[in-house]
Amino acid sequence: MGFKINHIAVVVADVQQALGFWRDALGLPLQRVEHNAREQVDIAFLPVGNEGEIELIAPTAPESGVAKYLAKTGGGLHHLCLEVEDIALALSDLAAKGVELITPEPRLREDGILYAFIHPRATGGVLLELYQLPHAAKSELA
Amino acid sequence: MGFKINHIAVVVADVQQALGFWRDALGLPLQRVEHNAREQVDIAFLPVGNEGEIELIAPTAPESGVAKYLAKTGGGLHHLCLEVEDIALALSDLAAKGVELITPEPRLREDGILYAFIHPRATGGVLLELYQLPHAAKSELA
């Protein structure tokens, strides 16, 4: 089918505090922590098994979207990201079926990943991100 | 490390309506829909790639815990479930580290899965379930 779980994003108040649970108590490996200046967040990446990872996302500025989400909800599960093989095809297909898209056209990140978001109103309440990875290392999924 | 994503649970108002997005529009395969009489929910299971699945959970009685969650939140991402190799060891280790557990002892389901829940207060806001599968088909993870 070509789908794969890429990540589950969790909004937290503080990455180091959250790592006290996810890395130190639970025992997931920490791959890296990076600062995303554009989104004004710190992100910790914790791979799980052979597929997918947990991303712990903490705001670093009070005006950021993530800071507002944290203030409103207290944090927790934020979005789910699935990899697809052809994101442009997936988006045009979803649009043709009347699905509400936040980003009708895929956007390109610096690392080469194409991404888009589907509105929670269309999914039953889930903010759903789609990824198309830059290299076609999809043969494992066949 | 022995961890694996088992499922991401999404609370929805109606399973068939939600399948209109997840199966019909997005294109995930539907494995089955089952009624869980004890929890008073319908659950649709949609495998994603080689690991993990999305579970769409809808209340079938207004008094159920899921019905109350739906009424309060409108639905959406509900919990994350990770497989571990030895759930008793994981729980005793977490308890020793002061992690707040909802179910300090693993519980046994009819299908042989041992499960437990970790409190969102301990995880940064995520209701986290742990599974230990009945058969030690873990060699793929080594």
Output the keywords.
globular; 2,3-Dihydroxybiphenyl 1,2-Dioxygenase, domain 1; 4 helices; 8-stranded mixed sheet; 142 residues; alpha+beta
Can you put this structure into words, describing what you see?
- Two copies of one chain form a homodimer.
- Helices cover 24% and strands 33% of the residues of chain A.
- With 142 residues, chain A is of the alpha+beta class.
- The first copy, chain A, folds into two domains: 77 residues, 2,3-Dihydroxybiphenyl 1,2-Dioxygenase, domain 1, CATH 3.10.180; 59 residues, 2,3-Dihydroxybiphenyl 1,2-Dioxygenase, domain 1.
- The first copy, chain A, has an eight-stranded mixed β-sheet with strand order 2-3-4-1-5-8-7-6.
- The first copy, chain A, is globular.
- The mean pLDDT of chain A is 93.
- The interface between A and B is large, with 50 and 50 residues.
